[in-house]
Amino acid sequence: MRTIADPQTVHRRTQAPPAPPCTLVVFGVTGDLAHRLLTPALYNLSRWNLLPDDFALIGVGRNEEGTTQALRDDLTAAARAHAAQKDDGFDEGAWQRLAGAVSYLVGDLEDDATYARLAERIEQGRGGRGAHGGVLFYLAVGAGLFGPVIRRLAAAGLAREEGDAWRRVIVEKPFGHDLASARALNRTILEVLDEAQVYRIDHFLGKETVQNIMAFRFGNGFFEPIWNRDHIDHVQITVAETVGVEKRGRFYEPTGALRDMVPNHLFQLLALTAMEPPTSFAADAVRGRKQDALAAVRPLSGEDVAENAVRAQYRAGMAGGRALPAYRGEPGVAPDSSTETYVAMRLTIDNWRWAGVPFFLRTGKALARRDTEIAIRFKQAPLALFRGTGVQHCQPNWLVLQIQPDEGISLQFGAKVPGPNIELAPVEMRFSYADYFNVKASTGYETLIYDAMIGDATLYQRADTIEAGWEVVQPILDAFAAEAVPLATYPAGSAGPAEADALLADQGCGWRPLA
Ligand code: BG6
To answer: What residues does substrate bind to (predicted)?
Structure first.
């Protein structure tokens, strides 16, 4: 496709001003998340001149032998490894600006003394101006520590805001493991923090293509008039991965595909697809409309779950070009595990826009292809025009928002095959991000961290949205736990279990092909 805008002029990051003065405190700085994602994201923010000049990063960890120099070396290695993997060169100056702002604080997160020392360090930091700038606390720790750390931050006075001395907390996932625990965590947090201080992360919202769903829907006039039950037959949302559980068996066993992916990532995609237009891009305008959409999803009642949801686990096979053992043979997994690695469901949304339009969701590990997409199938054209021709059926019109990989948008429709006969064949028009824009290698966390620094919570989850997601998922979790839905299996590297096909039986088409 032809480029009609200069990619350089449309890149938001190049236009945004640096974040205001702040200190970023990372709890769990020696962990995997901090190395794999946060460090590369901060490095990118430094390269794009989006970190303030007046910036400090305090990494809190339990390693008593740890020093500031050792942490700097460690994070340098992580940043370099990421740049090498992306084949993106390494901007030494940008990294040194960031590395020079890093310091290490040793401390047990369940010990009050750690927070007293942290308060001192913040105070001393940034040339003694610490207390007058913002402080962003990032909880890159196990979910069991979210409540305890937040309570201690508040008890140490670290959550108190005054003037431009804002205090914000980023809470990682998983946010609860069911409805009751999510509600309890929200209560614990909101006893000591104001909702406006809480940034609940869902890294899917950091993806450009996910943010583009709203831009595409509400920044263009052409699809919105037909974005409803009069014109849409159904919606398929797929998040397919080729990887198995890898080394995460211990985390995954009590979690499973439903908890791991649905109330958060898949429901974000569903909410952005189904929401009404917000009155502005202000955080609460957007989050309010997403909340409405999720609250309108009809929770499946006990008996309906078996008819509308499928769960399955992978057997041994070849996926992503690699031989994978059966899930039950993965490290940290019980040999008789009944944890699902795949889940699919049919949901309905009870509102005027969507009544009668099924939303089919599926996600799984060890599948044939890595593919995250939202596919909208429009209603078929009536056949009358083609009576007496060779055309047996009209081609379905699909609009596909390809979230990853091969980020883009495609529109599929039927076109006349050249020749004397009237014959239709499916054709595709495609927009690809890589062709149009100068896409920069990023982790998706850049936007999220920057937004938290500037106080924009649009891309973060609100307490009620989190709970609305769990409300839909809870009856399915209960039915799975009661074995009311049999555990199917599928070979690694396939498109999933055959049982999932039955969900679409009334639709006159199957799942979009994965293999
Ligand atoms: C995480 C899940 O939240 O999202 C993982 O815990 C999953 O199991 C991952 O693999 C998928 O994210 P992405 O960005 O790789 O599509």
So the answer is: 203, 207, 241, 260, 365
